[in-house]
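Model: Ready when you are.
Researcher: Fold this.
Model:
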Amino acid sequence: MKQILIFKIILLVIISFLQINYVSSQTTKPRYALLEVFTAVTCGPCYDGNVTLHNVLQQNSSKRYTVIKYQTYYPGVGDPYFTAEVGDKMSEYYFTGVPTLFGNGYENVTNPIYFTNSQLNSLQNVPAYMEINVDFYVVGHTVYAKA
């Protein structure tokens, strides 16, 4: 719970220093793929999904991706990292098992066990019409940001 609170504080600080540049529909910016992975410590296949996802990301030379992992209570209770916020996110996306991977905030991509470089490239190739620039660094539990 403390880690989620720290993450939320860091995110709020970063957002408060964002510099957002909107671009015309004629011009696009490279998209950073958002990969949201639902997993659980009580899930045997989740380990294989984590390994596959890690290998795909290591092969991607552009490094244009962000990964958020959510610890769920599937296939049974017992994951000590599950939080109510993750339960809300599960309800928002509505899925029936883990591991599950969503791309760019809406698209149910696949089970991470079957994730490929081609799928990552497809997520990165969706046009982006704004650019967000933030310079920040972290020292201990303090985030320093500059727009």
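Researcher: Now this one.
Model:
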Amino acid sequence: MTEARKTMDEEVKIGEIIDDRMREEEAESLCRWAAARAGVIVVAPLLGTMSLVANEIYLIIKLGKVYGEEISEQAAVKNLNAIALQIAEQETQARQALLKDDAFIDRIWRAYGILTSAHMIGCDEFCDLLSLVRLGAAQ
């Protein structure tokens, strides 16, 4: 291989590395933007769940464009739906595993006891205990 050919190959590799780095930076920037926007949507409940879903669909489509893939809105919705189903399944499995643990069941019953007999309780403690009781009730 000639010296000129080697130099050209090295320049192409450097160009690919720069392109990949730029894509990664743009993708990271989009993810940060979407996370910040999702945070605002969650804090302002009037915007609702649909705004959060629309935000995620927009992010999927934009990330596809960054990597040179054209993703339709329908494909993004399917992708998001599949991810949500996987998360729901994993959450169900985790809940079932927790409810098999005697020590965790004891924590649920203690939380129930505190909630039914406490005269004064702080908001944070109430939320933590209620969360445990709701988990037990979902059994």
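Researcher: Key takeaway?
Model: The mean pLDDT is 81.
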